[in-house]
Amino acid sequence: MAEKSTQPVVIKKVVKGGGHHGGSWKVAYADFVTAMMAFFLLMWLLATANQQQKAAISEYFKNPSAEIGASPTPSPGAVQGPGGASTSVIDMGGGAPLAAEQSAISDSVEKSTDETAPESTEQQAEKRFRDRIAEMLEELRELAARNEILKQYQDQLLFDITTEGLRIQVLDKDNRPMFDVGSAALKPHTHEILREIAKVINEIPSPVSITGYTDGRPLDRAGYSNWELSTERANAARRALAAGGMQEAKVARVVGLAASQLFNRTDPLDPTNRRVSITVLSPQHASQKQDASPPVPPSPSGRNGNASAKPRA
C-alpha cells in the first residue's frame, strides 16, 4: 500500500479588482448633491414668489406651448423654446433690475412721491372748511325743524353745498312773499328768518356772498329794472343779517342777478324765482377776486322790451 503524502494542501484565494472598490459611488453622490441643491433652490424661489408668479409658473407647466402673461409677439431678446414657449428667466424680484427697469422704477417713485406729498396750507384749510360746512348743513336742517320761528317757513328755506360753499336760499311764495311787490322793503317774517340765519353764519369765520334774484316779469318803471331791484333786495338782506348779529366784515360781495339764473327754469314767473341766496364762501373762493358788479342791465323798458307788463317781481 502506497504511503499517504504528508505535503500540506495550499488553498490560493484570488481577490479581483486589485483591492479597491472603484469611483462609481462618487458620481452617484455628486448627482445626489446636485439634485438636492436644485431642490432647495426651487423651494427658495417658490417661497419668494408672489401668487401671480406662482400662477404663471403653474400655467406654464400646464401649457408650455403658450406664453403666459405675454403678448403673442415675443419681446426683443427673448429666446424661443420648443413649441414657441419663452425660455426667459422668470423675474422673482431677487435679481438686479436692468437699466430700463431702473428708469421705470425711478419714474414711478417720483410720481408716487408727488401724489403722496403733504397737502399745502390752502388744501388743508379747504378740507377743514368742507368738513365744517357739512356739519353746519345738518345743524341748519335740525335748527329749521325745531326752531319756533324757522319751522314755520321750512318750505321757503333751502340749504345745500355748492362749489362755492354752504348756500342758504330763502324762497318767495305767493301767499307769503319776502318783499313788498316791486319793492326792496322786507316783510316782518323775512326779518325774523334772516335774524335766525345770522346767528348760524357767525359760527364759521368765513366771508359770505349775498345775491338777490327776481322772476322773469319785467318792471313797468322808467329807469328802474329787475337788475336794480334784485341788487337792492340783496342789500336789504345784508342789513337784516347785520341787524341780527352777523359781522359786517364777513360780507364779501352783494350782487343782484335779476332773472338771469332762474330757480324754476321751466316757469320764469314761478314765485320761487324771487329769492335771496346767502353763501358762506370757501377759502378758495374767498381768496379769488370777484367782480361784484352785475352784467349790464337791459333797457329801462324791461327785459323783454314790454313796458306794459305788470310790476310783479
Description:
The chain is α+β, with helices and mostly antiparallel strands and 313 residues long. It has a domain of 167 residues: 60s Ribosomal Protein L30, Chain: A (2-Layer Sandwich). It contains 7 helices and 5 strands; from the N terminus they run H-H-H-H-E-E-H-E-H-E-E-H. It has a 5-stranded mixed sheet. Helix 6 links the parallel strand 3 and strand 4. It is rod-shaped. The C terminus is likely disordered.
List the helices and strands and how they pair.
Layout: H1 24-48, H2 51-62, H3 99-115, H4 121-146, E1 157-161, E2 165-171, H5 188-201, E3 208-213, H6 226-243, E4 251-256, E5 275-281, H7 283-287
Parallel strand pairs: 3-4
Antiparallel strand pairs: 1-2, 2-5, 3-5
Helix pairs in contact: 5-6
Number of strands: 5
Physical arrangement of strands within the biggest beta sheet: 1-2-5-3-4
Q: Main β-sheet: number of strands, strand sense, barrel status?
A: 5 strands, mixed
How helical, in percent, are the residues?
25-40%
Mean pLDDT over the residues: 76
Oligomeric category = single chain
Specify the overall morphology.
rod-shaped
The CATH architecture designation of the domain at 121-287 is 2-Layer Sandwich
Number of helices: 7
Overall structural class, as computed from helix and strand content, comes to alpha+beta
Instruction: List SSEs in N-to-C order.
Output: HHHHEEHEHEEH
**Relative strand content:** 5-15%
CATH class of the domain at 121-287: Alpha Beta
Indicate the low-confidence ranges by residue numbers: 67-90, 94-98, 289-311
As a whole number of angstroms, the C-alpha radius of gyration is 45 Å
Looking at CATH, the homologous superfamily of the domain at 121-287 is OmpA-like domain
